[in-house]
Amino acid sequence: MLKPLQDRVIVKMIENEEITKSGIILSGATKEKSQIAEVLEVGPGGYVHGEKVEMCVKKGDKVIVNKYAGTEVKLDEGDVVIVNQSDILAKFEQ
Length: 94
Prior knowledge:
By secondary structure, the chain is mostly beta strands. It has strands spanning 8-13, 36-42, 46-48, 51-53, 62-65, 71-75, 78-84, 88-91. It is 0% helix and 41% strand.
């Protein structure tokens, strides 16, 4: 498994099946990219651009990620996205 550095977070996007009002299930090509993800790994934080960054998310959190953020990486375990913590817009309270 990858271990993120500094303020980076590794997330796995959660596929959401979209159904129209008439009951038609949209395929992956016709629906928008999901913005909901599960946090897989969290970097240690530290100093980024001279400012101390503390991590606000933890492994297992469900979060909403900026639509165009991150770097997609293909691994044997599946596709993941590496984002900066600042690209995480919100997290779901548990």
